[in-house]
Amino acid sequence: MDLVALTEKIVKSLVVNPDGVSVKEFPTEEENVMLIQVMVDSEDIGRVIGREGRTANAIRTLVQASSALHENKYIKIDIDKF
What we know:
Strand order of the largest sheet: 1-2-3
Order of helices and strands: HEEHHE
Distance between the termini: 27 Å
CATH architecture: 2-Layer Sandwich
Mean pLDDT: 93
Low-confidence stretches: none
Largest sheet: 3 strands, mixed
Strand content: 25-35%
CATH topology: GMP Synthetase, Chain A, domain 3
């Protein structure tokens, strides 16, 4: 599965307004690193980050594990609000 699509599916399942979610991949200067930027509504940012960042870390762990199985790249996920 595409890592960007996986990230988008996970985040959209957590938020109240799934239409306000934008997930994009950006190139990095490092060879084996993928940067995924997640943008959500300001009302949903707390749901995606979670208490003490636990939900955000869980999302990163799931996507990183999927990457280890398929592409073997290091994944950086940046979560921000509109």
